[in-house]
Amino acid sequence: MGSTTKRLCDALLNADNIDSYFDNNADRIDIGVDLSEFLEEKLKESGLTRAELFARSSINPSYGYQLLSGLRSPARDTAVQLALGLSLGVDDTQKLLRMAKLGALYPRDRRDSIILFAISNGFTLPQTNELLFSHSMNGLSK
Q1: Same domain as 50, residue 64
Q2: Measuring CA to CA, which of 12, 13, 60, 112 is 20 to 30 A from 69?
């Protein structure tokens, strides 16, 4: 169990009630917001249209609409593509991955660390793919 998970477990076991645990740890646990709601909220904040998001994310529009409506769940790379298309920061990207029940980007993993670097520096999807390719890693989009 990682140190953050252990701290969360300790906080849960020592909480006076479950609501105070949820309130005090809302940024570290699944808050019950639907992934499609989160994506729609971030899309609205970005000022992009759905078509622009799908183009920036290299996602087929029909598949993209299914993701935004909650009919389909994204694969991990697809979720990262959406994050890049929305120009999300590291925290929101990790939140998106958590909400999609996918593994967070892990800085000890070479490919993930390249992606984290790209996100933290505002790279686009093509720029991120170029960086991955230059380090002999698979790109995000097919």
Answers
A1: yes
A2: 112
Q: Do 77 and 18 share a structural domain?
A: no
Q: How many residues does this entry show for the chain? A: 142
pLDDT tens digits, one per residue of 55-104: 999 999 999 999 999 999 999 999 999 999 999 999 999 999 999 999 99
How far apart CA 12 and CA 40 sit, in angstroms, is 31
Pairwise CA distance, residues 103 & 122, whole Å: 21
Taking the alpha carbons of 11, 15, 17, 20 in that order, is the dihedral positive or negative?
Answer: negative
Q: What pTM, to 2 d.p., does this model score?
A: 0.81
- CA-based nearest residue to 70, from 100, 95, 44, 98: 100
Measure the CA–CA gap between 117 and 69, rounded to whole angstroms.
30
- Looking at the fold, whether 60 and 8 belong to one and the same domain comes out as no
Same domain for 12 and 49? no
For residues 81 and 58, is the Cβ–Cβ distance under 8 A? yes
Query: Is residue 69 domain-resident?
Result: yes
Residue range of the domain that includes 25: 1-31
